[in-house]
Amino acid sequence: MAIMNKEKKTENKRINEIDEPQEEDEEEEELENKKMDMFFNLIKNYQQAKKRRRLELLIQDSGDAASNPTKRSDSGIVPVFRVEDFSHCTDLNLKPSDSIISTKIQDKEEEEEEEEEEETEKKEIREDNGLDLNLAL
Asked: What segment(s) does the record annotate as region Disordered (predicted)?
């Protein structure tokens, strides 16, 4: 009998071990189902809130458009320009000053001088070689 009791106990333990994972699996499935339900409820709530907000904005825009045609004038920031803001500016209709023109002329003259110097250097090099590459027709 003692042997049969031990066998029954071990058999019951094995049965419990086999049954416990099923119970754990069921609990895990229930937990996952709850999480999925919460997730889908969250999505539904978000979509409903989005729809409500759009409707509110549409109603607000339609009401504001009838009462106030220039909605952007209520932005809060209105730029103000004064004469002092432009006191440092010069008259744009005037011709450029003489100093600007004279510097441009000087720059052109310097470039021309540099080009002439380069040409003379090339001529000197040709003459040193003793070959006349200029062909006369």
From this structure: 1-32, 99-137
Tokens of 76: 């809060």
Alpha carbons 95 and 64: distance in angstroms, whole number: 51
The two structure tokens encoding residue 1: 């009998």
What's the CA angle centered on 55, arms 51 and 60, to 5 degrees?
A: 150
Q: For the whole prediction, is pTM greater than 0.70?
A: no
Structure tokens at 21: 């994972």
Task: Write down the H helix ranges in 68-97.
Answer: none
> Tens digits of per-residue pLDDT, 56-111?
998 888 876 555 555 555 567 887 878 777 777 666 555 555 556 677 777 888 89
CA distance 19 to 17: 6
What letters, b where the CB count within 10 A reaches 16 and e where it falls short, cover 94-112? eeeeeeeeeeeeeeeeeee
DSSP state of 97: P
